[in-house]
TrEMBL record:
Keywords: Ammonia transport, Membrane, Transmembrane, Transmembrane helix, Transport. One of its GO terms (biological process) is ammonium homeostasis. Residues 18-402 form the Ammonium transporter AmtB-like domain. GO terms for cellular component: membrane. The lineage of its organism: Bacteria, Pseudomonadati, Pseudomonadota, Gammaproteobacteria, Vibrionales. This is Ammonium transporter. The chain crosses the membrane at residues 12-33, 54-74, 104-123, 128-145, 165-185, 206-223, 243-262, 269-287, 293-315, 327-344, 350-375. InterPro entries: Ammonium/urea_transptr, Ammonium_transpt_CS, Ammonium_transptr_marine, NH4_transpt_AmtB-like_dom. GO terms for molecular function: ammonium channel activity. It comes from Enterovibrio coralii.
Length: 409
């Protein structure tokens, strides 16, 4: 039986609204990243990290509108690897389930999320303008190309690679770009001793970091739920409910297991590890938040919560300085999420998942390393010792985040 025109229009309106509201939730994650990072850096670098987060979001929205969305979705060949190059977002196709503009809005906030991963990892020693130039390249070109290979119908999707909402496409990609920058940038002054010592550099505002984590947790319901793409019938509405349940369960398990690992290892409840445990669970379940049972979602989230603690400690031993743990949360646990998919989704294979993860990492890491390298050789990517000592707020922004406090140099 054919649906009446009224029912079709109502479903179109509902699915469009669902896209817009999901996108708005993901946009709110920009605030979460800003608060989390501002809480985990020192007070003398707070204004600068907030400036980065506001500007990277604005750059992502602009560049993805001008060229990025077109590269990722418009006039590309099925199963190909070389995207077309055009401008803006194309035109609405016949028989669409939702408006083209709502689709763009939902996609653009994902791009900003990938770039937000980078800002925390390179915090406290990267030049502001080098970071912003890199943001232009990542959001306009690097991310859209691998996005075409996967969600845009390119060769990775044809190969059977499965990534429901972006554990690899968004999170691991952001971590790969961050890792390339960190390797060329080096560690913060005073982080590592000559004989292998690791000196903790505490963040300035753990209440703010906690608020940021809860905002990210909240926004993730739009991130994963909206990726179902429809809600206007029984099957899709039920699926969205399952996605919400699994997303929440994985985050909760990640926090609990990170707490347990910290207690067993150091005898303390390390709040920063617990926060990263919740985020690790969210990243891991993002690869497939629909197929797992609730118990499986708890298992995936819990394993990610343990893994992120081990990864953060391991990277520190390798002298890879990541002030907020972004590479571990989004990279290590993003990869884990991809490899966990075949355990609950019979349509996915380990071979396809490994292939997709390797291609995404190699492309984003390689392209990012090239861009960071060019920036380092031309304008430089690291601030001077005096600037780092006095704080980025004074030199880059001219405004202290906490002017009533006396900064400890």
């Amino acid at each position: 039986m054919e649906l009446s025109t009224t029912v079709i229009e109502l479903r179109y309106a509902l699915d469009t609204f669902f896209f817009l509201m999901s996108g708005a939730l993901v946009m709110w994650m920009a605030a979460g990243f800003a608060m989390l990072e501002a809480g985990l850096v020192r007070s003398k670098n707070t204004t600068e990290i907030l400036t980065k987060n506001v500007c990277l979001y604005a750059i992502a929205c602009t560049m993805y509108l001008l060229v990025g969305y077109n590269i990722m979705y418009v006039d590309n060949s099925e199963g190909g690897w070389l995207p077309s190059l055009g401008f803006l977002i194309g035109t609405q196709g016949e028989g669409a389930d939702h408006s083209l503009e709502s689709d763009f809005f939902f996609q653009v906030v994902f791009v900003a999320t990938a770039m937000s991963v980078v800002s925390g990892a390179v915090a406290e020693r990267m030049k502001l303008w080098a970071f912003l130039i890199f943001s232009v390249v990542l959001t306009a070109f690097i991310y859209p190309v691998e996005g075409y290979w996967t969600w845009g119908g390119g060769f990775l999707s044809e190969a059977g690679f499965s990534d429901f909402a972006g554990s690899g496409i968004v999170h691991m990609a952001g971590a790969a770009a961050a890792l390339a920058g960190v390797l060329l940038l080096g560690a913060r002054k005073g982080k590592y001793g000559k004989n292998g010592q690791i000196y903790p550099i505490p963040g300035s505002n753990l209440p703010l970091a906690t608020l940021g984590t809860f905002i990210l947790w909240f926004g993730w319901f739009g991130f994963n739920g909206g990726s179902q793409l429809m809600i206007s019938d029984f099957e899709n509405a039920t699926a969205v409910g399952q996605i919400f349940l699994n997303t929440n369960a994985a985050a909760a398990a990640g926090a609990i297991i990170a707490l347990a690992v910290c207690k067993a290892t150091w005898g303390k409840a390390d709040l920063t590890m617990i926060l990263n445990g919740a985020l690790a669970g969210l990243v891991a379940i993002t690869a497939d938040p629909l197929s797992p049972s609730p118990v499986a979602a708890i298992t995936i989230g819990g394993l990610a919560g343990a893994l992120v603690v081990l990864s953060i400690v391991g990277l520190d031993k390798l002298k890879i300085d990541d002030p907020v743990g972004a590479i571990s949360v989004h990279g290590t646990c993003g990869l884990f999420g991809l490899l966990a998919v075949p355990f609950t989704n019979a349509d996915a294979t380990f071979g396809a998942q490994l292939f997709g993860a390797a291609v995404i990492f190699a492309w984003v890491f390689g392209a990012s390393l090239l861009v960071w390298g060019v920036l380092k050789a031309t304008m430089g990517i690291r601030v001077g010792e005096e600037e780092e000592l006095e704080g980025m707020d004074f030199h880059d922004c001219g405004v202290d985040a906490y002017p009533e406090f006396v900064s400890v140099k």
